[in-house]
Amino acid sequence: MTQLTRYTPVNSLKPFKTAWCIQVRILHSWIHFTKGSGMSLEMILADEAGNKIQAGIKKEHISKFQRYVKKGDWKIIDDFSVNKATGQYRSTIHPYRINFHYSTVFSPSPSISNEVWLDLVDFTTILAGNLDQNKLVDVLGQLVNVGEAQTIDVQGKPTKKIDFQLRDTDDNRLPCSLWGKFADQISKVAQESLGSIVIVLVRWAKLGEWKDIRSISNAFDASDVLINPILTEVEDFRRMLPSDGLALTIMGPKPRFQPLKVREQRSLGLPLKTIAELKASYEVEKVKIFCTILQIDLDYSWYYYAHIKCNKKVVQSKKLLSSGAKKLFYRCEKCNAEVSAVEARYWLHLDVMDSTGESKLMLFDSFVEQIIGTPATELLEGTNEELDDPLPVPDIVKNIIGKTYQFVVLIEQDNISRGNDEYKVNEVLTSQNLNQADLKAEVDYPVDLSSMSSSDQVLMLTNSSDKDETINTSLSTPSSKRKEDGSDGSDQNSTSKKQCTGKQSDAKDNGVIGVDNSKKTDQPTDLNVDGAVDLDNPKEHDQPKFLHKLDEAGQEAITKVSEAEQKKVLLKKIKVEKIEGQKGAK
């Protein structure tokens, strides 16, 4: 009996002396690093009553005591000091912590209990924000909606991160993020246990809050993650889960860009300008423009490499090793440090035009990926070396040539007074997929179609193939609008003419009247975002030069690629088709 009473309960430990003796179980241990104290070996101890306290061994004593520290073991520990517990991420509620000295003695102890003494916190308390964020908590939940693992730069080192949700027995959802080895652990479980019920216990989890969203994550290695642990609490939790059959699912990657409607709404107050107005502007501002991409300026590389942490360009350098060999490395232009965590990014310089003139635009990575849909890293297939010549532009990037987009463009002081004729793109709003109704919401030019005579001519821009000269069905006039109608008395036997029988109301709905596949014309056009003439704005684009420039751009694109590539180039030839009036030419 006297042997049992000589051990001091953990809750009774105080700083006034060092001659303490305790009998405790080691629940958890980890190596910890701090700027002020350096490295230490930390552990969480519990006595037979379940009272817990954090203890630490300084770097200089680790080699002596590390062999005695084994998770799950019971130990008798003599002669140590007790100090006030301070700082962030405290693993216990005990007001003090233990510091071991060189004279501290570890002795083996018989096992008293296999209990782990969980202090589970319910989700509603966490989500309500009623807890001290400096204290770590135990959380138990069902693993659902696992996201895609990411690699993020942390203090110059690439580190894995994974986001997921836990749900409780009341179907409350708690956002979670785990880093490092724990991210790998969850990612592996998600792949192997897809469609099954997975219970996750996160011990000593860190509380977090961002934009009023509360979540948990691991506090470095101070946390511990257990998957389907064999514990009474876990079995009770599993039985109380809702009987809805919800199992583990993999979430797709988070959308990198805001939805189109959000971007459109945010840009409503910006003025819409032509390229001529853009170049004549003398005010620092943001404006919207519609323009067609003529070519990619290949004087510049279409990609660059960036430091993941700083999100800034890196430059490749060489250093001489002691062996005489030269080692290539990257140096970040922002932090001026040697870095290894780099990835490829888009950086396009474009020649663009509308009916009023030409200009140059510069698009950074996120905007290019938005319209192409593929990250630059995938196109470069893991290449991360700076080459004497940049890699050829992939076909998927070339496909933007000839397409029309709506951009928000920055007019900066460099453009106004310092002779910079290249404008930065601040946002991509719409592309060729924009329908006619959306375009009219942005460009509203009233026109009275009833005033148009039957001999009025309009034009439509179509993409043609050198191989078959067939008109792209997505851009041509619907066949129902090109059927011959004998009631108008026109020549039905002409092989060089197509009769236009659509009524004026139909023309207004469809934006075009008819198509003649026979020849070019120098008639003025109005190019809309779908590649067709906009009847709502017949006078806006009155310069034949616009169409000629587009035709030249198509020819130039053809001559710059090999015969094997010609089949893949989107804009091989641009033909301007003449559409005759309702009665046709006589």
How would you describe this protein?
With 586 residues, this protein is of the alpha+beta class. It has 4 domains: 2-108, Beta Barrel (OB fold (Dihydrolipoamide Acetyltransferase, E2P)); 123-240, OB fold (Dihydrolipoamide Acetyltransferase, E2P); 260-430, OB fold (Dihydrolipoamide Acetyltransferase, E2P) (Beta Barrel), CATH 2.40.50.140; 451-486 and 496-579, no CATH class. It has 15 helices and 23 strands. The protein has helices at residues 2-5, 59-65, 123-128, 181-192, 232-240, 260-266, 275-280, 365-372, 376-379, 395-398, 413-417, 436-442, 504-510, 544-559, 563-566, and strands at 21-34, 38-46, 52-58, 74-84, 96-108, 137-144, 150-154, 157-167, 173-179, 199-210, 213-218, 224-227, 285-296, 303-307, 312-320, 326-332, 338-339, 342-354, 357-364, 404-411, 422-430, 458-464, 573-579. The protein has a 5-stranded mixed beta barrel. The chain is elongated, with a radius of gyration of 35 Å. Mean pLDDT is 75; it is low at 431-543 and 566-586. Residues 7-108 form the Replication protein A 70 kDa DNA-binding subunit B/D first OB fold domain. Belongs to the replication factor A protein 1 family. Residues 462-543 are annotated as: Disordered.
The strand line-up of the biggest sheet is: 1-2-3-5-4
Shape: elongated
Within the CATH hierarchy, at the fold level, what is the topology of the largest domain?
A: OB fold (Dihydrolipoamide Acetyltransferase, E2P)
**What is the CA-based Rg, rounded?**
35 Å
The CATH homologous superfamily of the largest domain corresponds to Nucleic acid-binding proteins
Query: Regarding quaternary structure, how should these chains be classified?
Result: single chain
Indicate the CATH class of the largest domain. Mainly Beta
Domain Replication factor A C-terminal: 289-440
Biased composition (Polar residues): 489-504
Organism: Arabidopsis suecica
Region (Disordered): 462-543
